[in-house]
C-alpha cells in the first residue's frame, strides 16, 4: 500500500472569512493561601495528576495518538534522539525510537518537534534541526515499531529557505489544522528574529519554501515581528501565538459551515489576564488554549502572590474568559528550585484530543523533565442509554445525537466557531429509523461513530468519514444476529474498537473492528460458557487496570455481571463478590478521576448504587448505596462521568422529571437539582436518560430530552449551570 502524501491546504479553497472580536479583560480570583502546593505525580491508576515519562527532554509535542520528545544520549544535551509514547488507555506505552533503520539518532541537534496526524492511521513526526531544515519520519501507530519499516526512515521535508531562496533561521515549528473539504494541516514556524512564517508548496528537497504567515488567510493583519511563542490548538482549528509584550492571539482558525464549506475567522487578540487587584498576569508560554504565567520572575514564592508565578490558565472560547485550570496545578517551587531560572521551561503543549488518552497538556521542567497532566477518563466515548448521546469528536466538533419524532437519528453539532447545526443521519446515510437506545463513540482509528438497532433489528453503525456519514449494516456484512436492545460502542484497551449488544437469546455479541482490516463477530457467552444470560443491554468500557470490560445485569437474579478480557473473556459475578442491591436497569462503567473503576446502576427502590475497584487492583473491592438523606428517588438509569473540573458526577432523572446530579466533593456525595441550578430548565421526558460529557471546547454539559420532546443542554460555566434549547437554536425537531 502506498504511503499518503502530506498535503498543504490551498488558500484558494478558503474563500469565506468570518469576523471575530475579543471581549474585555476578565478578572480572576487569586489562588487562596490554603490550597495544596503539591506537585502531584500520578501513582498507579490515578488521574488528575502529573505523569513524568522521561528525563533529559529538550522539546516535545503531542498528536492525537502520539507523544514525542527529544533527548540527548547518555545524559548529553545534544538532543539527537527522538522517542515517542503511544496512547494506551490514557497511559503512554514504552518509548519507541524514531529512525530505527538509520542509526537511532538524528544527524543534527533537535530544536523543535511538531506532530502531524491529519491523515488517518499515518502520523508524521516533523523535526526541526540545528541546521534549520525540517526532517520527517512517518508510520502507523497501530503497527509494531521495530519491524524495520515502520517509523524507520528519515526524509528531508522542508529546506530552510524563503520565497527568494534566502536562508531562514527557525526556533520552533507547529502544525495547524485547516478546515477544508478534506481536512489537512499546515506548518508554521517561529523565526529566530520573532517572525511567524508558514511553509507552502510541496514538501521535499526540491520544492516548497517558507513565507510570512501574514500572506495566508487566517493570519492576515498580524504584526510582522515581535513574537516569542507559537503552539497548535488540538481539538480545534488554528494556533495560539504569544507576543513579546505578553499579548495572546488566536490565528489560523475556522471550521465548516452547514454545507461543509470551509470558513476562516480573522486573528483575534484574547483578553488580558488580570487578577482581582487589576494587575496584569503575564504569560511566558502558550500551548493550545493554555498559558503559563511568570509575571514576578523568580521572586514569587507563595501562593496568591501578585506575580502569579507558574500558574496555568485556560481560555474558554465559549465564554470568552480565562480561568485558572485547576488548583492541583498551582505548584509553588521550593527555595532550592528557584535560583535564577523559572521552574518550568518555556514549552507547554496542548493535547486535549489525544485519541483514547485523556491528557490535557504537557510542560517541560527547567531541569529537562517532561510532565503531562493526566485528566482522567472522559465520557465522550461512553454511550447513552436513552434516546440521545453526546460526543466530543476528534475533529473538534461536539455532537448531540438523538432519535427524532419519527425515530430518525439526528445530530445537533457545535463547531469551533460556536455555531450549532442539525443533520439527519438516517437520511444522509440511508440507515432508516432507530429502535431503542443509540450509542456514540470514537473508534481506535479516530472516527466518530453512532451505532443503534435498525428497524429490522439489524445492528447498524453510521461513521463520520470525511464529510459523509457512511452506513454499515453488520447483518449484511458479517451476519451479526438480530439485536434485542441498544448497543454499546467503545475503544477497547487493545487495538480494536468494539460494539457489544444483547441478542434475542440473551447472549452478548461483539463486533470487533481493528484499526485496519475487516470486522469480526464473537459470541461472548460462547467464549465464556459459565456466564449468565443478559437481562439488560451491556456496556463496554476500559477499566483502570487497562482491561476491556463488558458490564450487564443478568436475567435470573439481576446481579451485576462482568466479562473481562485478558487472555480470554472471564465472567465475574460482581454483586456476589462485593454485595449490593439487584439492578433494575442498565449498568454503566467508568474510571473516576481518583483512579477508582466503578459500575453504577439503579436498584428497584430507586436507589443509586456504585460498585468499585480500588486503584491498582484487578478485582472488585466495594459497594456503596449513594442514595442517602436528601437524595430523591431515581426514575431512570444513572449515567456517571468526569466533569471538566475533575469532579466525579452521576446524572439521573428523578421521579418528578427533574434532572439530578450526585457529585463527589471533598470525599462525600452531594445532591444537586440541575433544573433549579439552571434557573428553571424544563423537566425531562419520562423516557429520557440525561447524559453528561465534556464537549470538545472543554465545557461540561448534561443533555436530555424535555417533556415537550426538545433537546436541552445544561452547560457548567463560571457562573454556574445555564440552559439552552438546542432544538429551538437549530430550528428543527
Helix segment tally: 7
CATH 2nd-level architecture of the domain at 11-374: 6 Propeller
Whole-angstrom Rg: 25 Å
Q: Please state the oligomeric state of the protein chains shown.
A: single chain
Taken from the alpha-carbon principal axes, the silhouette is globular
Any idea of the CATH class of the domain at 11-374? Mainly Beta
Low-confidence stretches: 1-49, 88-92, 179-183, 295-310, 326-346, 351-360, 365-369, 374-386
Number of strands: 58
Largest sheet: 5 strands, antiparallel
CATH fold label of the domain at 11-374: Neuraminidase
Q: What is the helix content?
A: under 10%
What is the terminal-to-terminal distance?
45 Å
What percent strand? 35-45%
Structural class: mainly beta
Overall mean pLDDT score?
A: 77
Task: Kindly describe this structure.
- The chain is mainly beta and 733 residues long.
- Among the domains are: 11-374, Neuraminidase (6 Propeller); 647-733.
- The protein is 4% helix and 42% strand.
- The chain has seven helices and 58 strands.
- Strands 4, 5, 6, 7 and 8 form a five-stranded antiparallel beta sheet that branches.
- The longest helix has 5 residues, at 425-429.
- The chain is globular, with a radius of gyration of 25 Å.
- The two termini are 45 Å apart.
Entry keywords:
four-stranded antiparallel sheet, five-stranded antiparallel sheet, Neuraminidase, mainly beta
Summarize the structure.
This protein has 733 residues and is mostly beta strands. β20 and β21 form a beta hairpin.
Amino acid at each position: 500500500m502506498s504511503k499518503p502524501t502530506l498535503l498543504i491546504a490551498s488558500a484558494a479553497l478558503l474563500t469565506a472569512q468570518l469576523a471575530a472580536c475579543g471581549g474585555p479583560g476578565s478578572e480572576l480570583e487569586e489562588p487562596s493561601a490554603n490550597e495544596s502546593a503539591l506537585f502531584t505525580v500520578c501513582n498507579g491508576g490515578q488521574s488528575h495528576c502529573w505523569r513524568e515519562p522521561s528525563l533529559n527532554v529538550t522539546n516535545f509535542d503531542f498528536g492525537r495518538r502520539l507523544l514525542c520528545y527529544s533527548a540527548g544520549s547518555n545524559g548529553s544535551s545534544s538532543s539527537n534522539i527522538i522517542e515517542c509514547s503511544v496512547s494506551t488507555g490514557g497511559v503512554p506505552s514504552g518509548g519507541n525510537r524514531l529512525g530505527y533503520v538509520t542509526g537511532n539518532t538524528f544527524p543534527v541537534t533537535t530544536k523543535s518537534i511538531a506532530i502531524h496526524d491529519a491523515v488517518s492511521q499515518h502520523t508524521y513526526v516533523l523535526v526541526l534541526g540545528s541546521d534549520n531544515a525540517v526532517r520527517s519520519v512517518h508510520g502507523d501507530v497501530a503497527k509494531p515499531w521495530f519491524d524495520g519499516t515502520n517509523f524507520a526512515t528519515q526524509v528531508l521535508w522542508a529546506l530552510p529557505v524563503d520565497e527568494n531562496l534566502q536562508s531562514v533561521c527557525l526556533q520552533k515549528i507547529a502544525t495547524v489544522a485547516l478546515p477544508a473539504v478534506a481536512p489537512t494541516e499546515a506548518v508554521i514556524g517561529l523565526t529566530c528574529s520573532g517572525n511567524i512564517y508558514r511553509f507552502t508548496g510541496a514538501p521535499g528537497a526540491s520544492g516548497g519554501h517558507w513565507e510570512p504567515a501574514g500572506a495566508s488567510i487566517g493570519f492576515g493583519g498580524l504584526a510582522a515581528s515581535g513574537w516569542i511563542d507559537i503552539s497548535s490548538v488540538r481539538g480545534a482549528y488554528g494556533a495560539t501565538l504569544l507576543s513579546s509584550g505578553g499579548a495572546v492571539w488566536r490565528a489560523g482558525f475556522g471550521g465548516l459551515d452547514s454545507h461543509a464549506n470551509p470558513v476562516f475567522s480573522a486573528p483575534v487578540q484574547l483578553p488580558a489576564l488580570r487578577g482581582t487587584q487589576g494587575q496584569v498576569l503575564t504569560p511566558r508560554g502558550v500551548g493550545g488554549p493554555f498559558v503559563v504565567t511568570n509575571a514576578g520572575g523568580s521572586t514569587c514564592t507563595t501562593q496568591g502572590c501578585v506575580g502569579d508565578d507558574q500558574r496555568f490558565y485556560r481560555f474558554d472560547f465559549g465564554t470568552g474568559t480565562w480561568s485558572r485550570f485547576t488548583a492541583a496545578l498551582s505548584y509553588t517551587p521550593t527555595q532550592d528550585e528557584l535560583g535564577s531560572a523559572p521552574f518550568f521551561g518555556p514549552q507547554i503543549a496542548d493535547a486535549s484530543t489525544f485519541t483514547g488518552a485523556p491528557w490535557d497538556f504537557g510542560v517541560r521542567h527547567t531541569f529537562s523533565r517532561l510532565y503531562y497532566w493526566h485528566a482522567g477518563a472522559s465520557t465522550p466515548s461512553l454511550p447513552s442509554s436513552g434516546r440521545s448521546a453526546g460526543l466530543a469528536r476528534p475533529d473538534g466538533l461536539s455532537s448531540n445525537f438523538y432519535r427524532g419524532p419519527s425515530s430518525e437519528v439526528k445530530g445537533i453539532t457545535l463547531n469551533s466557531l460556536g455555531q450549532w447545526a442539525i443533520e439527519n443521519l438516517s437520511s444522509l446515510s440511508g440507515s432508516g429509523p432507530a429502535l431503542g437506545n443509540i450509542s456514540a463513540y470514537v473508534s481506535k482509528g479516530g472516527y466518530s461513530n453512532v451505532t443503534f438497532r435498525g428497524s429490522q433489528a439489524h445492528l447498524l453503525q453510521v461513521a463520520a468519514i470525511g464529510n459523509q456519514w457512511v452506513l454499515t449494516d453488520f447483518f449484511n456484512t458479517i451476519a451479526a444476529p438480530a439485536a434485542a436492545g441498544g448497543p454499546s460502542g467503545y475503544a477497547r484497551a487493545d487495538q480494536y474498537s468494539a460494539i457489544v449488544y444483547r441478542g434475542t437469546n440473551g447472549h452478548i455479541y461483539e463486533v470487533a473492528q481493528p484499526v485496519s482490516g475487516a470486522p469480526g463477530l464473537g459470541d461472548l457467552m460462547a467464549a465464556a460458557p459459565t456466564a449468565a444470560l443478559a437481562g439488560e443491554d451491556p456496556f463496554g468500557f476500559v477499566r483502570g487496570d487497562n482491561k476491556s470490560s463488558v458490564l450487564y445485569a443478568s436475567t435470573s437474579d439481576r446481579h451485576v455481571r462482568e466479562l473481562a478480557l485478558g487472555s480470554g473473556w472471564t465472567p465475574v459475578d460482581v454483586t456476589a463478590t462485593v454485595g449490593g442491591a439487584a439492578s433494575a436497569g442498565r449498568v454503566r462503567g467508568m474510571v473516576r478521576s481518583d483512579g477508582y473503576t466503578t459500575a453504577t446502576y439503579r436498584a428497584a427502590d430507586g436507589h443509586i448504587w456504585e460498585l468499585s475497584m480500588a486503584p491498582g487492583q484487578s478485582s472488585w473491592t466495594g459497594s456503596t448505596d449513594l442514595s442517602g438523606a436528601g437524595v430523591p428517588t431515581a426514575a431512570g438509569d444513572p449515567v456517571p462521568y468526569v466533569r471538566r473540573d475533575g469532579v466525579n458526577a452521576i446524572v439521573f432523572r428523578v421521579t418528578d422529571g427533574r434532572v439530578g446530579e450526585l457529585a463527589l466533593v471533598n470525599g462525600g456525595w452531594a445532591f444537586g437539582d440541575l433544573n433549579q441550578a439552571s434557573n428553571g430548565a424544563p423537566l425531562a421526558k419520562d423516557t429520557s436518560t440525561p447524559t453528561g460529557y465534556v464537549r470538545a471546547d472543554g465545557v461540561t454539559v448534561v443533555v436530555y430530552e424535555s417533556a415537550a420532546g426538545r433537546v436541552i443542554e445544561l452547560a457548567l460555566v463560571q457562573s454556574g449551570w445555564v440552559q439552552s434549547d438546542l432544538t429551538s437554536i437549530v430550528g428543527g425537531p
